[in-house]
């Protein structure tokens, strides 16, 4: 203990020694300096006034206008303009209790912790100088030049720069918004780990999952279990048990019970596949477009159309969806299939369908036992208001058609036709007129139809494969063995022979 002046005044403080001028205390490795002090020898404590400074080693310093120190409990109580400095972190408050035995400081009338470029404020908090761990409660705010976090309860480590929130919390970074009630955020790496159905939003895109991982620097996010990714701008969704999104590249992927949902129109489209991938081209330009890849056991359902195939690609540039490997498309009681099916959309509704290779169109009549059929190498179907308005078949066209008597809606007979090309025009799903350049055909009365004319050689009706509703897209039902399309060998042009 040291002071310029040491005296006793029973009228001022009968229980204390009064010290003035360059007061200096030492206790168990700690040094305390102040302008004046009261020293209570009986209780091994003192009060310090004016320019109070306490130093503990080379890493900890405490400044205040007033302090009380209990030497037995090694407890320092600092008041008014309190500053606690520990390594690179500084805590500002007006009331602080610092326990030297447990190396922890408590503030309870508002405090601010400055750590590198981050500033943390709250109404109440504590800071452990040995573990570098801080706890903040009530009206918590954590901010720097890259993000802003608000919470009710936050743990922060000044060594690892890791923040852990355990109550309703919001994190704002650039254009992204995060809501979580259990999450970790590293202020240095800008990486987030979010749990408990946390929500991440960024310019119309929202991702929710049981756990979400987000890197603000790279714009990459991953989500696990019951994931819902929503694009409110383009009005579509991806769901699954795993989703990945790269904001800078515009790349997204979903798998494990993955479902793509388009709700841009009155009827919502639900599509399931093992995996979905979204690629964005010319990102951040006026000519931006996307390609969606779905592969392995694709099933799609919408009220006006259903589809099944092994894989497909949708290109937003030309609004074309291409279905590969045993594709089938249904529209009401109409079935289309072939080697590949191209579906062209207009305003998110089917505008045109192009079937390429082993094309087959089958229409089930109202009696459910007779089927209009058409097979060809190539086929087109044109739609209006969700219904087929025109059909066009090209090359090796075979037709089985049942004319209907308009007066009583009975079947007149079976018309079997062979031609090179056929155009059919419909109105209200009824044939209005038909065009063929040259045809060979026979109209059989129903009682005289040869058994081999009821069905074309490639006829197949895959009603047992068709998705029945949006829940049924998860139930894969493949074609029965032997009914898959056989790969046709393409005719090759003969090799040219050069004669000298």
Overall form: rod-shaped
Content of β-strand: over 45%
Which structural class do you get from the secondary structure elements? mainly beta
β-strand number: 37
The end-to-end span amounts to 117 Å
Q: What composes the largest sheet? A: 37 strands, antiparallel
Report the uncertain regions.
Answer: none
Oligomer: single chain
- Average residue-wise pLDDT: 87
Rg of Cα set: 39 Å
Helicity level? under 10%
Keywords:
63% strand; single chain; mainly beta; 500 residues; 37-stranded antiparallel beta sheet
Polypeptide structure, described:
The structure is a single chain. This protein has a 37-stranded antiparallel beta sheet that branches. Strand 15 (169-173) and strand 16 (176-180) form a beta hairpin. It has strands at 5-7, 17-27, 30-40, 45-56, 60-70, 75-86, 89-99, 104-107, 111-115, 118-122, 124-128, 133-143, 148-157, 162-165, 169-173, 176-180, 183-186, 191-202, 205-215, 220-231, 236-246, 251-255, 259-262, 269-272, 275-281, 289-302, 305-315, 320-324, 328-331, 334-337, 340-346, 349-364, 371-384, 387-401, 413-427, 430-435, 439-445. The chain is rod-shaped and about 130 Å long. It is mainly beta.
């Amino acid at each position: 203990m040291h002071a310029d002046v040491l005296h006793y005044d029973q009228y001022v403080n009968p229980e204390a020694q009064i010290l003035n001028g360059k007061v200096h205390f030492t206790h168990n490795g700690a040094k305390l300096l102040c302008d004046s002090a009261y020293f209570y020898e009986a209780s091994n404590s003192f009060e310090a006034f004016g320019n109070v400074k306490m130093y503990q080693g080379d890493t900890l310093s405490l400044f205040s206008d007033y302090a009380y120190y209990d030497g037995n409990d090694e407890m320092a109580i600092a008041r008014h303009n309190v500053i606690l400095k520990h390594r690179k972190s500084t805590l500002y408050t007006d009331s602080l209790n610092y326990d030297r035995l447990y190396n922890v400081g408590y503030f309870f009338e508002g405090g601010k912790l400055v750590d590198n470029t981050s500033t943390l404020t709250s109404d109440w908090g504590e800071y452990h100088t040995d573990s570098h761990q801080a706890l903040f409660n009530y009206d918590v705010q954590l901010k720097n030049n890259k993000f802003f976090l608000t919470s009710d309860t936050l743990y922060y480590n000044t060594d690892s720069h890791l923040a852990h929130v355990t109550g309703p919390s919001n994190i704002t970074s650039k254009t992204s918004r995060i809501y979580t009630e259990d999450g970790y955020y590293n202020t240095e790496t800008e990486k987030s780990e979010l749990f408990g159905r946390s929500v991440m939003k960024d310019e119309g895109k929202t991702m929710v999952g049981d756990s979400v991982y987000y890197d603000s620097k790279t714009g990459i996010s991953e989500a696990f279990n019951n994931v819902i990714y929503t694009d409110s701008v383009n009005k579509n969704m991806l769901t699954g048990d795993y989703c990945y999104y790269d904001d800078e590249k515009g790349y997204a992927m979903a798998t494990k019970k993955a479902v793509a949902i388009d709700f841009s129109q009155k009827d919502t489209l639900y599509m399931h596949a093992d995996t979905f991938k979204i690629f964005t081209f010319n990102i951040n330009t006026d000519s931006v477009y996307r390609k969606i890849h779905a592969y392995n056991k694709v099933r799609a359902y919408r009220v006006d159309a259903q589809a099944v195939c092994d894989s497909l690609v949708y290109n937003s540039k030309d609004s074309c969806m291409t279905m590969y490997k045993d594709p089938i498309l249904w529209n009401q009681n109409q079935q289309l299939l072939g080697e590949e099916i191209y579906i062209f959309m207009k305003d998110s509704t089917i505008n045109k369908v192009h079937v390429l290779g082993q094309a087959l169109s089958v229409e089930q009549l109202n009696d459910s036992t007779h089927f209009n059929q058409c097979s060809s190498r190539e086929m087109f179907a044109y739609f209006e208001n969700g219904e087929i308005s025109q059909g066009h078949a090209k090359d090796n066209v075979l037709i089985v058609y049942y004319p209907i008597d308009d007066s009583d809606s009975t079947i007149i007979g079976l018309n079997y036709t062979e031609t090179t090309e056929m155009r059919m025009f419909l109105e209200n799903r009824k044939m209005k007129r038909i065009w063929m350049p040259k045809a060979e055909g026979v109209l059989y009365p129903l009682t005289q139809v040869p058994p081999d004319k009821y069905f074309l050689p490639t006829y197949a009706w895959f009603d047992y494969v068709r998705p029945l509703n949006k829940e049924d897209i998860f139930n894969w039902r493949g074609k029965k063995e032997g009914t898959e399309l056989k790969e046709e060998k393409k005719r090759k042009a003969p090799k040219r022979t050069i004669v000298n």
